[in-house]
Amino acid sequence: MRLPRLATVVAVALTVPLLVTTTASAAPAVLGGGDPYFPAAGNGGYDVAHYGLGLTYDPATGRLDGTAVITLTATSDLDSFSLDLRNLQASSVVVDTRTATFTQVPPTDGVGGELVVTPRQRLRAGSTHAVTVVYGGVPGQPTDQTGALYGWVSYADGAFVANEPEGASTWYPVDDVPTDKATYDFTITVPQGLTAIANGEPVGRPVTAGGRTTYVWHAKDPMASYLSTASIGNYTASTQTGPHGLPILNYVDQDLKPKAAAGLALQPQMIQFFEGVFGPYPFSSFGAIVDDDDDAGYALENQTRPIYAGAPDEITVAHELAHQWVGDSVTPEQWKDIWLNEGFATYAEWLWGESRGLTTVQAQFDRVMKAKATDPFWQVLPGNPGAADLFHPATYDRGGATLVALRTRIGDRPFATLLRTWTTQNRGGNVTTADFIALAEQVSGQQLDDFFTT
To answer: What are the tens digits of pLDDT across the range 12-29?
Structure first.
């Protein structure tokens, strides 16, 4: 995730209140998706298949108005259900064609925020429904538990939208957990002269009327909510063509176009290189959003369209591209296993740097291992870093070093088989560290528990 463009991410203490299940009915809404790091995020009792988001945004006032049409299937009988929605106010909720009652639970210390919906009839397990929520408000500049900007971050010239880990609820009602992947449609209306970019591909041409322009995007590949985006700015569009005719759609802030050109130029070659490591590219397009809102200070691997706060260098682009396989397509079930995202993308960027003669994988491994034994770097567990240290350098560098050590342990050929099998066998799914260990043992024929403990 959020690869910092600066040196490190400062971790602070995190306290997240656990929302408890209401007892108002026999089949109540379940508040919280079960992740111990972010217990207020996500919900139980249903699976979302699709989000249709209609958004209107005015940077002059910072106001966002939305209509979300959510297609979901109940996984248990529900008298009520909950959607994550933070600091935005719902004005109406319709389940199928019937108006539903609802209440909103405000965030606690900036965490959480729930829209609890009670339909007129119980949702039976296995039944599918369309839930329409009309809502609005001023998102402002929300921050995560470390104080970093995330979610819908408003600026005078647009919005920087990057959700990891659970910031999607700052701009639409959502089941905000990595395991509930869904397809998306975006219809985004902004003042004329601005451009709205989302995941997937544009549908038709933008339409301008009355001083506003509407952009339509369709993301057909199921996506975790933290990877969705609807970023808005003064972008200049350009295109490239990747392997097998893959469209690469780039949107660069007009002030950054010359600076960003070099970092983005090699994207087609990078895709071809990583296909050799991880197998076929998993989505229908790729590209970039390069924003001038430098105070965000990081890049994020939004599915098909990573976003960069400032012009990225080549290695940062390689890192976010690698995430399309490891993180976006193959996604951890819980946030404690984030090294399956960041360690793998870090190792991939080392591979790319070696292929370009910029460094070697061994040199990067040696750099990691030179950290002094007393360095706090060794106190964070990459396989369970804690919510406050989710983006600690140990998650990235020690995660990458683990893969280098594993390659040495099992051999180059089994390791290459392992990486490709991991990304192709689990394409579009969710995984755990235990899953990776089991596959590594299967491919290598070795017992590796002691290795991974070390």
So the answer is: 222 333 333 333 444 677
Write out the two tokens for 362. Answer: 């061994």
- Residues 315 and 128: their CA atoms lie apart, in Å, by 44
Single-letter amino acid code for the residue at 232: I
Beta strands in 75-193 (DSSP E): 81-84, 89-95, 98-99, 101-105, 114-118, 128-137, 151-155, 158-162, 182-191
| 203 DSSP 8-state letter | -
Q: How many residues does the chain have?
A: 454
Please count the helices (runs of H) and the strands (runs of E) in the chain.
Answer: 10, 26
* Residue owning tokens 């509930």: 180
239/248 Cα distance (integer angstroms):
6
Q: Are 51 and 70 in contact (CB under 8 A)?
A: yes
How far is CA 130 from its chain centroid? Answer: 24
Q: How far, in Å, CA of 301 to CA of 317, rounded?
A: 9
**HSE value, Cβ hemisphere, 13 Å, CA-based, for 281:** 24
Instruction: Please answer whether residues 252 and 288 qualify as being in contact, where contact means their C-beta atoms are separated by less than 8 angstroms.
Output: yes
| β 286-291/247-253 pair status | parallel
**How far is the CA of 300 from the CAs of 80, 210, 308, 428, in angstroms?**
34, 34, 7, 19
Rounded to an integer, what distance in angstroms lies between the CA atom of residue 216 and that of residue 185? 7
- Taking 70 as the threshold, does the pLDDT of residue 52 lie above it? yes
| Prediction pTM value | 0.93
Distance CA 101, CA 224 (A): 28
